[in-house]
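Hello Y.,

Per our agreement to keep a running log of every chain we model this quarter, I'm adding this entry. I've kept the format consistent with earlier entries: sequence first, then predicted structure.
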Amino acid sequence: MSDPFSLEPQPETYWHLWTGDDGISRQQPCTIRDFQLGQLGPGDSAQFSRPLFDQGNAFVTYLPVGWTADWHENHVPKWIYVLKGAWSVQSMDGQIAIMRAGDYSFGGDQGCIATPEGHKGHLSAQVGDEPCVQLIIQRNDDAWRQAQPGFFR
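Predicted structure for the entry above:
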């Protein structure tokens, strides 16, 4: 398998709804480009991302075909929306969830205790023959930390 970071991500297209100076709403296709290879937080596996604003609380990420991550925790709680492609997440209990375009998950695995094998947090990987593009939304405070299932009712 080739190195998933050997190819730069292609620009991603989205529809932008906006209001002109005349007060009329319009739509046009736009692109998100200039992805940068790096980590979203300490201990995260490298991935391409593009912050959507200066505070860095919302990112579009691009996981190339073949991308995988070692065991890690999400450094902060976050929502992860799959926009295109698919990815998998394996938790420490062995459960594997595969999420495809339109699926989303909450990453709240902070504070895990490592197993004797060194497993802590989760494994994640791109799935299939097309890159996985995600929208990630995270907060700068502790409001979502330790949120249990049903917290977001």
